[in-house]
Amino acid sequence: MRFDILTLFPAMFTGPLTESILKRAQQAGLLDVRLHDIRAWASDKHRTADDAPYGGGAGMVMKAEPLAACIRAVLAEEPPAPVILMSPDGELLTQAIAQELARAPRLLLVCGHYEGLDERLRATLITRELSVGDYVLTGGELAAMVVVDAVARLVPGVIDAASTAEESHSDGLLEYPHYTRPAIWEGLPVPPVLVSGHHGEVAKWRRHERLRRTLARRPDLLARAYADGQLTRADLLFLAELGWER
Ligand code: 21W
What is the pTM of this model? Predict the structure, then answer.
């Protein structure tokens, strides 16, 4: 899968792309990430990529011409790709969206900076807008890295297939707690059921811990799991003991 990232700050991407899983995926030829410096498409001698807003106000606006030239040059290559603007006004990224995006052969990610970009780019070249959460970043670069990371790990071969298969038919509950050696750490023991060797009891304990945690931390997810028919009669009995009101 190929990503083309359009940015004024290509150097921001080197760390995440040259470590760990994303590095290995690129070396294996599963992932091809190309960085494009928008400023290289500015035609004036100062390489201007931003300007003051019409109508006045604080901050700067990304100019239409350099970004449009950059997008068009990158889009001229194959295969076709959606042009996704990273924007705080975009649709919130979810695992379902990451799964949808992972089916495309190529994505073009546009990173805004400053107050935003000239609205006419939205009307012409941008096909989708994504936000990574309701908080304010300094630009779209870190958000684009989040998209690359979330989508790339779903590309077959990038990580162990068992991990993503579990997510795709996930019941929408939080994870159970994990433990590894030593059996006692700083006076804290591992729950005895996990060392008991009773696989049925371990499975039941893990399910209960998942339900307990989801109720405590993300009751919204529990309501969704219930509405989606992901909860068994045993789950509902256990949740009733915990005082859950559906
Ligand atoms: C932050 C751009 C604030 C514009 C009203 C008028 C991309 C992002 C970004 C940024 C503003 C994402 C204002 C989650 C994010 C991004 C930079 C608007 C203030 N309000 N996902 N002016 N959060 N952020 N400026 O910030 O480009 S995806």
Answer: 0.94
